[in-house]
Amino acid sequence: TISLTINGKECLAYENETLLTCARRHDIYVPTLCELDDINHTPGTCRVCVVEIHQACKDKHQIVTSCNTPVRNGMEVLTRTKKVRNMQKLQVELLMADHLQDCATCSRHGDCELQDLAQFVGLKENRYFNRQLTESREVDDSSPSIIRDMRRCVRCQRCVAVCRNYQGVDALVMSGTGIDRLVSLRDGLDQLNSTCVSCGQCVLVCPTGALGERDEIDKALDFICDPELTTVIQFAPAVRVAFGEEFGMPAGTNVEGQMISACRKIGVDIILDTNFAADVVIMEEGIELLNRLKSGTKPTFTSCCPAWVNFAEIHYPDILPLLSSTKSPQQVLSTLSKTYLPEKMGISPDKIRVISIMPCTAKKDEAVRPQLSQDGRPDTDVVLTTREFARLLRREGIDLKHIEPSSFDDPYMSEYSGAGAIFGTTGGVMEAAIRTLYAVINDKELDEIELTQLRGFEGVRSATVDLGGPFGKVKVAMCHGLSETRTIVETILNRETDFDFIEIMACPGGCVDGGGSLRSKKSYLPQAQARRETIYNVDRTTKVRQSHNNEQVKSLYKDFLEAPNSEKARHLLHTHYSD
Ligand code: HC0
Ligand code: SF4
User: Fold this and answer.
1) What does the pLDDT read at residue 423?
2) Which ligand neighbours the alpha carbon of 168 most closely?
3) CA 510, CA 160: separation in Å to the nearest integer?
4) Which residue puts its alpha carbon closest to atom 7 of ligand 2?
5) Is there a smaller number of Cβ atoms within 10 Å at the N or the C end of the chain?
Protein backbone atom coordinates (compact mmCIF):
# COMPACT_ATOMS: atom_id res chain seq x y z
CA THR A 1 0.00 0.00 0.00
CA ILE A 2 0.88 3.62 -0.50
CA SER A 3 0.81 6.15 2.27
CA LEU A 4 0.27 9.87 1.79
CA THR A 5 -1.32 12.81 3.54
CA ILE A 6 -4.26 14.85 2.30
CA ASN A 7 -4.73 18.12 4.18
CA GLY A 8 -2.48 16.71 6.87
CA LYS A 9 -4.54 13.56 7.33
CA GLU A 10 -2.80 10.17 6.90
CA CYS A 11 -4.35 8.29 3.99
CA LEU A 12 -3.69 4.83 2.62
CA ALA A 13 -4.04 4.49 -1.12
CA TYR A 14 -4.23 1.64 -3.61
CA GLU A 15 -1.65 1.13 -6.29
CA ASN A 16 -2.75 2.94 -9.51
CA GLU A 17 -5.34 5.01 -7.69
CA THR A 18 -5.73 8.67 -8.59
CA LEU A 19 -5.56 11.48 -6.08
CA LEU A 20 -9.25 12.15 -6.71
CA THR A 21 -10.45 8.63 -5.91
CA CYS A 22 -8.18 8.43 -2.88
CA ALA A 23 -9.52 11.75 -1.56
CA ARG A 24 -13.10 10.59 -2.15
CA ARG A 25 -12.54 7.35 -0.28
CA HIS A 26 -11.34 9.40 2.66
CA ASP A 27 -14.38 11.67 2.48
CA ILE A 28 -12.42 14.69 1.30
CA TYR A 29 -14.38 16.73 -1.25
CA VAL A 30 -12.66 17.79 -4.43
CA PRO A 31 -14.92 19.53 -6.98
CA THR A 32 -15.16 18.05 -10.48
CA LEU A 33 -17.15 18.74 -13.60
CA CYS A 34 -16.05 16.71 -16.60
CA GLU A 35 -15.26 13.58 -14.64
CA LEU A 36 -17.89 10.83 -14.20
CA ASP A 37 -16.74 8.00 -12.05
CA ASP A 38 -19.54 5.58 -12.98
CA ILE A 39 -18.41 5.46 -16.59
CA ASN A 40 -14.73 5.71 -15.72
CA HIS A 41 -14.46 9.06 -17.46
CA THR A 42 -11.60 11.40 -16.58
CA PRO A 43 -10.73 13.49 -19.61
CA GLY A 44 -9.14 16.22 -17.47
CA THR A 45 -10.65 18.98 -19.59
CA CYS A 46 -12.40 21.15 -16.98
CA ARG A 47 -9.40 21.44 -14.67
CA VAL A 48 -11.48 22.26 -11.60
CA CYS A 49 -10.25 19.25 -9.66
CA VAL A 50 -6.85 20.86 -9.14
CA VAL A 51 -4.97 20.24 -5.88
CA GLU A 52 -1.54 21.24 -4.65
CA ILE A 53 1.14 18.65 -3.99
CA HIS A 54 4.27 19.12 -1.99
CA GLN A 55 7.16 16.77 -2.54
CA ALA A 56 9.38 17.18 0.50
CA CYS A 57 12.35 15.49 -1.19
CA LYS A 58 12.38 18.12 -3.92
CA ASP A 59 10.91 20.86 -1.73
CA LYS A 60 8.55 21.60 -4.62
CA HIS A 61 4.93 22.73 -4.70
CA GLN A 62 2.98 21.83 -7.76
CA ILE A 63 -0.61 22.26 -8.96
CA VAL A 64 -2.02 19.13 -10.62
CA THR A 65 -5.41 17.84 -11.75
CA SER A 66 -6.38 15.19 -9.21
CA CYS A 67 -8.53 13.13 -11.58
CA ASN A 68 -5.58 11.91 -13.60
CA THR A 69 -2.62 12.17 -11.21
CA PRO A 70 -1.65 8.84 -9.66
CA VAL A 71 -0.90 8.61 -5.93
CA ARG A 72 2.70 8.23 -4.83
CA ASN A 73 4.18 7.23 -1.53
CA GLY A 74 4.98 10.14 0.77
CA MET A 75 2.95 12.72 -1.15
CA GLU A 76 1.59 15.69 0.77
CA VAL A 77 -1.65 16.81 -0.87
CA LEU A 78 -3.46 20.05 -0.10
CA THR A 79 -6.96 20.63 -1.46
CA ARG A 80 -7.96 23.96 0.12
CA THR A 81 -4.98 26.31 -0.13
CA LYS A 82 -5.60 29.83 -1.38
CA LYS A 83 -3.73 28.98 -4.56
CA VAL A 84 -5.99 25.96 -5.17
CA ARG A 85 -9.17 27.91 -4.42
CA ASN A 86 -8.15 30.76 -6.73
CA MET A 87 -7.26 28.35 -9.53
CA GLN A 88 -10.59 26.60 -9.20
CA LYS A 89 -12.44 29.90 -9.29
CA LEU A 90 -10.49 30.98 -12.37
CA GLN A 91 -11.26 27.70 -14.12
CA VAL A 92 -14.98 28.12 -13.53
CA GLU A 93 -14.80 31.72 -14.68
CA LEU A 94 -13.09 30.56 -17.87
CA LEU A 95 -15.82 27.96 -18.41
CA MET A 96 -18.42 30.69 -17.97
CA ALA A 97 -16.59 32.88 -20.51
CA ASP A 98 -17.98 30.70 -23.28
CA HIS A 99 -21.34 29.82 -21.78
CA LEU A 100 -24.71 31.58 -22.01
CA GLN A 101 -25.40 33.70 -18.94
CA ASP A 102 -29.17 33.19 -18.99
CA CYS A 103 -29.42 30.51 -16.33
CA ALA A 104 -32.96 31.53 -15.32
CA THR A 105 -34.35 30.49 -18.69
CA CYS A 106 -32.39 27.23 -18.96
CA SER A 107 -34.16 23.92 -18.35
CA ARG A 108 -31.38 22.89 -15.96
CA HIS A 109 -31.80 25.95 -13.72
CA GLY A 110 -31.53 24.71 -10.16
CA ASP A 111 -30.36 21.27 -11.28
CA CYS A 112 -27.09 22.07 -13.06
CA GLU A 113 -23.60 20.85 -12.21
CA LEU A 114 -22.01 24.06 -13.51
CA GLN A 115 -24.24 26.16 -11.24
CA ASP A 116 -23.26 23.95 -8.30
CA LEU A 117 -19.64 24.51 -9.13
CA ALA A 118 -20.04 28.28 -9.45
CA GLN A 119 -21.48 28.26 -5.95
CA PHE A 120 -18.72 26.06 -4.60
CA VAL A 121 -15.98 28.38 -5.85
CA GLY A 122 -17.93 31.50 -4.86
CA LEU A 123 -18.11 32.92 -8.36
CA LYS A 124 -19.30 36.52 -8.22
CA GLU A 125 -18.42 37.92 -11.62
CA ASN A 126 -17.80 36.80 -15.16
CA ARG A 127 -15.00 39.05 -16.28
CA TYR A 128 -14.22 37.15 -19.47
CA PHE A 129 -17.67 36.47 -20.90
CA ASN A 130 -17.51 36.68 -24.67
CA ARG A 131 -21.09 37.11 -25.80
CA GLN A 132 -20.33 37.16 -29.49
CA LEU A 133 -18.35 33.94 -29.39
CA THR A 134 -20.85 32.14 -27.19
CA GLU A 135 -23.83 33.19 -29.24
CA SER A 136 -22.12 32.02 -32.42
CA ARG A 137 -22.07 28.43 -31.14
CA GLU A 138 -24.35 25.94 -32.85
CA VAL A 139 -27.86 25.09 -31.69
CA ASP A 140 -28.97 21.93 -33.46
CA ASP A 141 -32.73 21.60 -33.26
CA SER A 142 -33.13 19.42 -36.33
CA SER A 143 -34.33 16.36 -34.40
CA PRO A 144 -37.87 15.87 -33.07
CA SER A 145 -36.45 14.63 -29.80
CA ILE A 146 -32.95 15.83 -28.83
CA ILE A 147 -31.74 19.43 -28.92
CA ARG A 148 -27.99 20.10 -28.78
CA ASP A 149 -27.14 23.61 -27.61
CA MET A 150 -23.41 24.24 -27.88
CA ARG A 151 -23.83 27.64 -26.18
CA ARG A 152 -24.12 25.70 -22.92
CA CYS A 153 -21.56 22.93 -23.55
CA VAL A 154 -18.59 22.64 -21.16
CA ARG A 155 -16.69 20.07 -23.30
CA CYS A 156 -16.74 17.42 -20.62
CA GLN A 157 -17.18 14.80 -23.35
CA ARG A 158 -19.35 12.57 -21.17
CA CYS A 159 -21.88 12.40 -24.00
CA VAL A 160 -19.18 11.28 -26.43
CA ALA A 161 -18.02 8.59 -24.00
CA VAL A 162 -21.51 7.20 -23.29
CA CYS A 163 -22.54 7.16 -26.93
CA ARG A 164 -19.30 5.46 -27.95
CA ASN A 165 -18.48 3.12 -25.08
CA TYR A 166 -21.90 2.25 -23.67
CA GLN A 167 -24.21 2.52 -26.64
CA GLY A 168 -21.70 1.62 -29.33
CA VAL A 169 -23.41 4.12 -31.64
CA ASP A 170 -20.46 6.52 -31.76
CA ALA A 171 -22.50 9.32 -33.25
CA LEU A 172 -20.65 12.08 -31.38
CA VAL A 173 -17.08 13.27 -31.88
CA MET A 174 -14.87 16.16 -30.80
CA SER A 175 -14.07 18.42 -33.72
CA GLY A 176 -12.25 21.72 -34.28
CA THR A 177 -9.16 22.98 -32.52
CA GLY A 178 -8.28 25.34 -29.68
CA ILE A 179 -11.22 27.31 -28.30
CA ASP A 180 -13.31 25.96 -31.16
CA ARG A 181 -12.88 22.35 -30.12
CA LEU A 182 -16.48 21.24 -29.69
CA VAL A 183 -18.77 18.25 -29.60
CA SER A 184 -20.41 17.60 -32.93
CA LEU A 185 -22.11 14.83 -34.81
CA ARG A 186 -19.79 12.66 -36.86
CA ASP A 187 -19.09 13.98 -40.39
CA GLY A 188 -20.53 17.39 -39.50
CA LEU A 189 -24.09 16.16 -39.91
CA ASP A 190 -27.05 17.50 -37.97
CA GLN A 191 -28.76 15.35 -35.33
CA LEU A 192 -31.63 14.38 -37.62
CA ASN A 193 -29.46 13.09 -40.43
CA SER A 194 -26.72 11.58 -38.31
CA THR A 195 -26.38 8.03 -37.03
CA CYS A 196 -27.87 9.10 -33.66
CA VAL A 197 -30.84 6.95 -32.65
CA SER A 198 -32.28 9.35 -30.02
CA CYS A 199 -31.80 6.99 -27.10
CA GLY A 200 -31.06 9.99 -24.86
CA GLN A 201 -28.30 8.34 -22.84
CA CYS A 202 -26.05 11.32 -23.64
CA VAL A 203 -28.72 13.61 -22.18
CA LEU A 204 -28.71 11.66 -18.92
CA VAL A 205 -25.01 12.38 -18.33
CA CYS A 206 -24.81 15.98 -19.59
CA PRO A 207 -23.95 18.19 -16.60
CA THR A 208 -25.56 21.34 -18.04
CA GLY A 209 -28.39 22.34 -20.36
CA ALA A 210 -26.34 21.61 -23.48
CA LEU A 211 -28.26 18.41 -24.20
CA GLY A 212 -31.95 18.10 -23.59
CA GLU A 213 -35.24 17.08 -25.10
CA ARG A 214 -37.33 19.28 -27.35
CA ASP A 215 -39.50 21.07 -24.80
CA GLU A 216 -43.18 20.55 -25.65
CA ILE A 217 -44.76 21.49 -22.35
CA ASP A 218 -46.60 24.48 -23.82
CA LYS A 219 -48.02 22.36 -26.59
CA ALA A 220 -49.42 19.95 -23.98
CA LEU A 221 -50.81 22.80 -21.88
CA ASP A 222 -52.47 24.33 -24.94
CA PHE A 223 -54.36 21.07 -25.45
CA ILE A 224 -55.25 20.65 -21.78
CA CYS A 225 -56.50 24.23 -21.42
CA ASP A 226 -58.57 24.24 -24.62
CA PRO A 227 -62.22 23.65 -23.61
CA GLU A 228 -63.07 22.47 -27.14
CA LEU A 229 -60.69 19.52 -26.91
CA THR A 230 -60.86 16.23 -25.05
CA THR A 231 -57.40 15.50 -23.73
CA VAL A 232 -56.29 11.95 -23.13
CA ILE A 233 -53.13 11.28 -21.14
CA GLN A 234 -51.23 8.01 -20.88
CA PHE A 235 -48.15 7.19 -18.89
CA ALA A 236 -45.60 4.44 -19.46
CA PRO A 237 -44.96 1.42 -17.23
CA ALA A 238 -41.63 2.75 -15.98
CA VAL A 239 -42.68 6.34 -15.33
CA ARG A 240 -44.63 5.63 -12.14
CA VAL A 241 -41.64 4.01 -10.41
CA ALA A 242 -39.19 6.82 -11.22
CA PHE A 243 -41.28 9.98 -11.27
CA GLY A 244 -41.39 10.46 -7.51
CA GLU A 245 -37.64 11.08 -7.49
CA GLU A 246 -38.30 14.32 -9.37
CA PHE A 247 -40.08 15.49 -6.22
CA GLY A 248 -37.56 14.19 -3.72
CA MET A 249 -39.15 10.82 -2.98
CA PRO A 250 -36.93 7.74 -2.58
CA ALA A 251 -35.95 5.84 -5.72
CA GLY A 252 -38.51 3.21 -6.64
CA THR A 253 -41.50 4.87 -4.90
CA ASN A 254 -44.64 3.95 -6.84
CA VAL A 255 -46.48 7.22 -7.54
CA GLU A 256 -49.12 5.91 -9.92
CA GLY A 257 -51.94 7.21 -7.68
CA GLN A 258 -50.37 10.63 -7.23
CA MET A 259 -49.83 10.94 -10.98
CA ILE A 260 -53.50 10.19 -11.63
CA SER A 261 -54.53 12.87 -9.12
CA ALA A 262 -52.10 15.36 -10.62
CA CYS A 263 -53.44 14.73 -14.13
CA ARG A 264 -56.99 15.35 -12.90
CA LYS A 265 -55.94 18.48 -11.08
CA ILE A 266 -54.41 20.05 -14.17
CA GLY A 267 -57.58 19.37 -16.14
CA VAL A 268 -56.85 16.30 -18.24
CA ASP A 269 -60.16 14.73 -19.34
CA ILE A 270 -59.34 11.04 -19.69
CA ILE A 271 -56.48 9.23 -17.95
CA LEU A 272 -55.40 5.96 -19.53
CA ASP A 273 -52.57 3.57 -18.83
CA THR A 274 -49.88 2.53 -21.29
CA ASN A 275 -49.72 -0.70 -19.23
CA PHE A 276 -53.14 -1.61 -20.65
CA ALA A 277 -51.75 -1.20 -24.16
CA ALA A 278 -48.75 -3.33 -23.21
CA ASP A 279 -51.25 -6.13 -22.57
CA VAL A 280 -52.79 -5.54 -26.00
CA VAL A 281 -49.32 -5.64 -27.57
CA ILE A 282 -48.74 -9.06 -26.01
CA MET A 283 -51.93 -10.35 -27.65
CA GLU A 284 -50.95 -8.99 -31.07
CA GLU A 285 -47.24 -9.77 -30.91
CA GLY A 286 -47.88 -13.19 -29.36
CA ILE A 287 -50.11 -14.36 -32.20
CA GLU A 288 -47.78 -12.77 -34.73
CA LEU A 289 -44.90 -14.71 -33.21
CA LEU A 290 -46.80 -18.00 -33.32
CA ASN A 291 -47.57 -17.44 -36.99
CA ARG A 292 -43.93 -16.69 -37.68
CA LEU A 293 -42.80 -19.78 -35.79
CA LYS A 294 -45.22 -21.87 -37.84
CA SER A 295 -43.82 -20.48 -41.07
CA GLY A 296 -40.23 -20.94 -39.91
CA THR A 297 -39.36 -17.21 -39.88
CA LYS A 298 -36.92 -16.55 -37.08
CA PRO A 299 -35.92 -14.83 -35.00
CA THR A 300 -38.62 -12.26 -34.30
CA PHE A 301 -37.40 -9.06 -32.63
CA THR A 302 -39.62 -6.98 -30.38
CA SER A 303 -40.26 -3.52 -31.80
CA CYS A 304 -41.69 -1.51 -28.93
CA CYS A 305 -38.46 0.37 -28.17
CA PRO A 306 -38.25 3.30 -30.61
CA ALA A 307 -34.50 3.88 -30.21
CA TRP A 308 -33.99 0.22 -31.16
CA VAL A 309 -36.23 0.70 -34.22
CA ASN A 310 -34.19 3.79 -35.16
CA PHE A 311 -31.00 1.78 -34.63
CA ALA A 312 -32.22 -1.05 -36.85
CA GLU A 313 -33.33 1.37 -39.58
CA ILE A 314 -30.11 3.40 -39.57
CA HIS A 315 -27.48 0.81 -38.75
CA TYR A 316 -28.88 -2.60 -39.75
CA PRO A 317 -31.68 -2.22 -42.33
CA ASP A 318 -31.22 -5.87 -43.38
CA ILE A 319 -32.68 -6.92 -40.06
CA LEU A 320 -35.93 -4.93 -40.46
CA PRO A 321 -38.05 -7.79 -41.87
CA LEU A 322 -37.45 -9.64 -38.60
CA LEU A 323 -38.97 -6.90 -36.42
CA SER A 324 -42.45 -7.53 -35.09
CA SER A 325 -44.98 -5.42 -36.98
CA THR A 326 -47.00 -4.76 -33.82
CA LYS A 327 -47.05 -1.08 -32.86
CA SER A 328 -45.58 -0.10 -29.51
CA PRO A 329 -47.88 0.25 -26.49
CA GLN A 330 -47.68 4.05 -26.79
CA GLN A 331 -48.93 3.91 -30.37
CA VAL A 332 -51.49 1.17 -29.72
CA LEU A 333 -53.05 3.26 -26.98
CA SER A 334 -53.02 6.43 -29.09
CA THR A 335 -54.63 4.66 -32.04
CA LEU A 336 -57.32 3.12 -29.84
CA SER A 337 -57.91 6.52 -28.20
CA LYS A 338 -58.93 7.87 -31.59
CA THR A 339 -60.94 4.85 -32.75
CA TYR A 340 -62.25 2.59 -29.99
CA LEU A 341 -62.62 5.27 -27.31
CA PRO A 342 -64.69 7.73 -29.40
CA GLU A 343 -66.92 4.84 -30.49
CA LYS A 344 -67.49 3.87 -26.85
CA MET A 345 -67.89 7.41 -25.53
CA GLY A 346 -69.65 9.04 -28.44
CA ILE A 347 -67.09 11.80 -28.94
CA SER A 348 -65.56 13.01 -32.17
CA PRO A 349 -62.05 11.68 -32.85
CA ASP A 350 -61.13 15.11 -34.31
CA LYS A 351 -61.53 16.66 -30.88
CA ILE A 352 -59.23 14.19 -29.11
CA ARG A 353 -55.61 14.99 -28.33
CA VAL A 354 -53.34 12.33 -26.88
CA ILE A 355 -50.50 13.32 -24.56
CA SER A 356 -48.08 10.63 -23.49
CA ILE A 357 -45.63 10.72 -20.61
CA MET A 358 -42.58 8.58 -21.35
CA PRO A 359 -39.19 7.94 -19.73
CA CYS A 360 -37.81 8.19 -23.24
CA THR A 361 -36.59 10.74 -25.76
CA ALA A 362 -37.00 8.48 -28.81
CA LYS A 363 -40.76 8.23 -28.20
CA LYS A 364 -40.89 11.78 -29.60
CA ASP A 365 -39.39 10.44 -32.85
CA GLU A 366 -41.87 7.59 -32.84
CA ALA A 367 -44.84 9.93 -32.45
CA VAL A 368 -43.98 11.85 -35.61
CA ARG A 369 -43.49 8.82 -37.87
CA PRO A 370 -45.74 9.37 -40.89
CA GLN A 371 -46.95 5.76 -40.78
CA LEU A 372 -48.26 6.38 -37.24
CA SER A 373 -50.77 9.04 -38.24
CA GLN A 374 -54.25 9.21 -39.76
CA ASP A 375 -54.95 11.76 -42.51
CA GLY A 376 -51.93 13.82 -41.53
CA ARG A 377 -52.81 13.96 -37.84
CA PRO A 378 -50.43 12.03 -35.57
CA ASP A 379 -51.99 9.36 -33.37
CA THR A 380 -49.90 10.60 -30.44
CA ASP A 381 -50.18 14.39 -30.41
CA VAL A 382 -47.41 15.15 -27.97
CA VAL A 383 -44.86 13.16 -25.98
CA LEU A 384 -43.43 14.58 -22.78
CA THR A 385 -40.43 13.03 -21.11
CA THR A 386 -40.63 12.34 -17.40
CA ARG A 387 -38.47 15.44 -16.90
CA GLU A 388 -40.84 17.64 -18.89
CA PHE A 389 -43.88 16.34 -17.04
CA ALA A 390 -42.21 17.24 -13.73
CA ARG A 391 -41.58 20.76 -15.04
CA LEU A 392 -45.17 20.98 -16.24
CA LEU A 393 -46.52 20.04 -12.81
CA ARG A 394 -44.24 22.61 -11.17
CA ARG A 395 -45.59 25.24 -13.54
CA GLU A 396 -49.09 24.27 -12.39
CA GLY A 397 -48.06 24.63 -8.76
CA ILE A 398 -48.20 20.93 -7.97
CA ASP A 399 -45.81 19.15 -5.64
CA LEU A 400 -46.37 15.44 -6.05
CA LYS A 401 -45.32 14.85 -2.46
CA HIS A 402 -48.35 16.71 -1.21
CA ILE A 403 -51.05 15.20 -3.34
CA GLU A 404 -53.43 12.40 -2.31
CA PRO A 405 -53.25 9.35 -4.59
CA SER A 406 -56.34 8.25 -6.50
CA SER A 407 -57.24 5.48 -8.96
CA PHE A 408 -58.00 5.21 -12.65
CA ASP A 409 -61.69 5.48 -13.43
CA ASP A 410 -61.72 4.92 -17.17
CA PRO A 411 -63.72 1.76 -17.89
CA TYR A 412 -62.07 0.96 -21.21
CA MET A 413 -58.27 1.27 -21.23
CA SER A 414 -56.73 1.67 -17.81
CA GLU A 415 -56.77 -1.80 -16.29
CA TYR A 416 -53.53 -3.73 -16.55
CA SER A 417 -52.04 -7.08 -15.69
CA GLY A 418 -48.74 -7.73 -13.96
CA ALA A 419 -47.43 -8.76 -17.38
CA GLY A 420 -48.14 -5.28 -18.75
CA ALA A 421 -46.46 -3.68 -15.74
CA ILE A 422 -43.12 -5.49 -16.18
CA PHE A 423 -42.65 -4.08 -19.71
CA GLY A 424 -40.74 -1.26 -18.05
CA THR A 425 -37.66 -3.32 -17.24
CA THR A 426 -35.30 -5.43 -19.33
CA GLY A 427 -36.74 -8.91 -19.91
CA GLY A 428 -40.27 -7.81 -19.09
CA VAL A 429 -41.72 -7.96 -22.59
CA MET A 430 -40.35 -11.47 -23.03
CA GLU A 431 -41.72 -12.66 -19.72
CA ALA A 432 -45.13 -11.16 -20.45
CA ALA A 433 -45.17 -12.77 -23.90
CA ILE A 434 -44.23 -16.22 -22.62
CA ARG A 435 -47.01 -16.16 -20.00
CA THR A 436 -49.58 -15.61 -22.74
CA LEU A 437 -48.02 -17.83 -25.42
CA TYR A 438 -47.95 -20.77 -23.05
CA ALA A 439 -51.60 -20.31 -22.19
CA VAL A 440 -52.67 -19.92 -25.83
CA ILE A 441 -50.77 -23.06 -26.89
CA ASN A 442 -51.65 -25.29 -23.93
CA ASP A 443 -55.03 -23.91 -22.92
CA LYS A 444 -53.84 -23.64 -19.33
CA GLU A 445 -51.70 -21.21 -17.36
CA LEU A 446 -48.01 -21.67 -16.61
CA ASP A 447 -47.47 -23.27 -13.20
CA GLU A 448 -44.63 -20.95 -12.36
CA ILE A 449 -45.61 -17.47 -13.47
CA GLU A 450 -42.41 -15.66 -12.51
CA LEU A 451 -39.88 -16.61 -15.14
CA THR A 452 -36.81 -15.79 -13.12
CA GLN A 453 -34.52 -17.33 -15.73
CA LEU A 454 -35.39 -14.34 -17.95
CA ARG A 455 -34.58 -11.75 -15.31
CA GLY A 456 -31.21 -10.27 -14.49
CA PHE A 457 -29.06 -7.40 -15.53
CA GLU A 458 -26.40 -8.81 -17.85
CA GLY A 459 -26.38 -7.05 -21.23
CA VAL A 460 -27.44 -10.19 -23.08
CA ARG A 461 -29.27 -13.06 -21.43
CA SER A 462 -30.53 -16.13 -23.19
CA ALA A 463 -32.78 -18.96 -22.09
CA THR A 464 -34.67 -21.94 -23.39
CA VAL A 465 -38.37 -21.96 -22.62
CA ASP A 466 -40.72 -24.90 -23.04
CA LEU A 467 -43.84 -23.59 -24.75
CA GLY A 468 -45.37 -27.07 -25.02
CA GLY A 469 -47.60 -28.06 -27.96
CA PRO A 470 -46.10 -28.25 -31.44
CA PHE A 471 -43.35 -25.76 -30.70
CA GLY A 472 -41.76 -27.38 -27.66
CA LYS A 473 -38.62 -25.64 -26.55
CA VAL A 474 -37.86 -22.21 -27.97
CA LYS A 475 -34.70 -20.15 -27.61
CA VAL A 476 -35.11 -16.59 -26.45
CA ALA A 477 -32.76 -13.71 -25.71
CA MET A 478 -33.10 -10.44 -23.88
CA CYS A 479 -30.71 -7.62 -24.66
CA HIS A 480 -30.40 -4.10 -23.28
CA GLY A 481 -27.98 -1.36 -24.26
CA LEU A 482 -27.04 -0.81 -27.88
CA SER A 483 -23.46 -2.09 -27.72
CA GLU A 484 -24.83 -5.49 -26.78
CA THR A 485 -27.56 -5.11 -29.38
CA ARG A 486 -24.96 -4.57 -32.09
CA THR A 487 -23.24 -7.79 -31.06
CA ILE A 488 -26.42 -9.86 -31.10
CA VAL A 489 -27.66 -8.41 -34.41
CA GLU A 490 -24.34 -9.26 -36.02
CA THR A 491 -24.49 -12.85 -34.79
CA ILE A 492 -27.95 -13.14 -36.35
CA LEU A 493 -26.84 -11.63 -39.66
CA ASN A 494 -23.84 -13.99 -39.68
CA ARG A 495 -26.16 -16.93 -38.85
CA GLU A 496 -24.15 -17.77 -35.75
CA THR A 497 -27.15 -18.07 -33.43
CA ASP A 498 -30.62 -19.53 -33.81
CA PHE A 499 -32.89 -17.66 -31.43
CA ASP A 500 -36.65 -17.70 -31.92
CA PHE A 501 -37.55 -14.49 -30.14
CA ILE A 502 -35.37 -11.56 -29.04
CA GLU A 503 -36.30 -8.62 -26.84
CA ILE A 504 -34.28 -5.46 -27.36
CA MET A 505 -34.29 -2.37 -25.17
CA ALA A 506 -31.89 0.37 -26.27
CA CYS A 507 -31.31 1.88 -22.85
CA PRO A 508 -29.14 -0.05 -20.40
CA GLY A 509 -31.67 -1.43 -17.90
CA GLY A 510 -34.67 -0.95 -20.17
CA CYS A 511 -37.26 1.82 -19.75
CA VAL A 512 -36.62 2.22 -16.01
CA ASP A 513 -33.38 3.90 -17.07
CA GLY A 514 -34.75 5.57 -20.16
CA GLY A 515 -33.04 8.60 -21.65
CA GLY A 516 -36.06 10.76 -20.74
CA SER A 517 -35.97 10.02 -17.04
CA LEU A 518 -34.53 12.00 -14.17
CA ARG A 519 -30.91 13.07 -14.56
CA SER A 520 -28.73 12.22 -11.62
CA LYS A 521 -25.89 14.60 -11.08
CA LYS A 522 -22.47 12.98 -11.12
CA SER A 523 -23.78 9.48 -11.60
CA TYR A 524 -25.02 7.23 -14.36
CA LEU A 525 -28.07 5.03 -13.72
CA PRO A 526 -27.84 4.96 -9.92
CA GLN A 527 -31.52 4.17 -9.34
CA ALA A 528 -31.91 1.20 -11.66
CA GLN A 529 -32.23 -1.50 -9.05
CA ALA A 530 -34.80 0.24 -6.85
CA ARG A 531 -37.04 1.14 -9.79
CA ARG A 532 -36.83 -2.39 -11.11
CA GLU A 533 -37.75 -3.97 -7.79
CA THR A 534 -40.88 -1.86 -7.57
CA ILE A 535 -41.89 -2.94 -11.07
CA TYR A 536 -41.63 -6.61 -10.06
CA ASN A 537 -43.57 -5.82 -6.91
CA VAL A 538 -46.39 -4.29 -8.94
CA ASP A 539 -46.56 -7.57 -10.87
CA ARG A 540 -46.61 -9.60 -7.65
CA THR A 541 -49.46 -7.58 -6.17
CA THR A 542 -51.64 -7.23 -9.28
CA LYS A 543 -54.73 -9.45 -9.25
CA VAL A 544 -54.42 -10.46 -12.88
CA ARG A 545 -50.93 -11.36 -14.02
CA GLN A 546 -51.37 -12.37 -17.66
CA SER A 547 -52.28 -10.05 -20.52
CA HIS A 548 -54.95 -12.40 -21.90
CA ASN A 549 -56.78 -12.35 -18.54
CA ASN A 550 -57.12 -8.56 -18.49
CA GLU A 551 -60.91 -7.98 -18.56
CA GLN A 552 -60.66 -4.68 -20.44
CA VAL A 553 -58.46 -6.37 -23.05
CA LYS A 554 -61.08 -9.08 -23.45
CA SER A 555 -63.79 -6.42 -23.93
CA LEU A 556 -61.66 -4.62 -26.49
CA TYR A 557 -61.44 -7.76 -28.60
CA LYS A 558 -65.07 -8.74 -28.04
CA ASP A 559 -66.54 -5.30 -28.77
CA PHE A 560 -64.13 -3.87 -31.30
CA LEU A 561 -61.15 -5.80 -32.66
CA GLU A 562 -62.70 -9.27 -32.95
CA ALA A 563 -59.47 -11.24 -32.41
CA PRO A 564 -55.72 -10.74 -32.16
CA ASN A 565 -54.30 -10.24 -35.67
CA SER A 566 -57.82 -9.92 -37.15
CA GLU A 567 -58.00 -7.78 -40.27
CA LYS A 568 -59.12 -4.82 -38.19
CA ALA A 569 -56.39 -5.38 -35.59
CA ARG A 570 -53.77 -5.68 -38.31
CA HIS A 571 -54.99 -2.49 -39.91
CA LEU A 572 -55.06 -0.48 -36.68
CA LEU A 573 -52.34 -1.95 -34.49
CA HIS A 574 -49.55 -2.95 -36.86
CA THR A 575 -47.01 -0.85 -38.72
CA HIS A 576 -43.97 -1.04 -40.98
CA TYR A 577 -40.40 0.27 -40.92
CA SER A 578 -38.35 2.03 -43.52
CA ASP A 579 -34.70 1.71 -44.50
FE1 HC0 B 1 -41.22 1.77 -22.28
FE2 HC0 B 1 -43.02 0.66 -23.65
S3 HC0 B 1 -41.97 -0.33 -21.90
S4 HC0 B 1 -41.02 1.31 -24.52
O5 HC0 B 1 -39.64 1.08 -22.03
O6 HC0 B 1 -43.02 -1.82 -25.02
O7 HC0 B 1 -40.68 4.57 -22.99
O8 HC0 B 1 -41.91 2.33 -19.48
O9 HC0 B 1 -43.92 2.97 -22.46
O10 HC0 B 1 -44.59 2.08 -25.82
O11 HC0 B 1 -45.53 -0.23 -22.43
C12 HC0 B 1 -40.80 3.54 -22.59
C13 HC0 B 1 -41.56 2.21 -20.50
C14 HC0 B 1 -43.09 2.22 -22.66
C15 HC0 B 1 -44.03 1.51 -25.02
C16 HC0 B 1 -44.66 0.14 -22.92
C17 HC0 B 1 -43.03 -0.84 -24.61
FE1 SF4 C 1 -25.62 8.79 -28.98
FE2 SF4 C 1 -28.02 8.11 -27.97
FE3 SF4 C 1 -27.03 10.58 -27.59
FE4 SF4 C 1 -27.82 9.86 -30.04
S5 SF4 C 1 -29.12 10.06 -28.23
S6 SF4 C 1 -25.94 10.95 -29.54
S7 SF4 C 1 -27.28 7.67 -30.06
S8 SF4 C 1 -26.19 8.63 -26.80
Assistant:
1) 92
2) 2
3) 21
4) 196
5) N
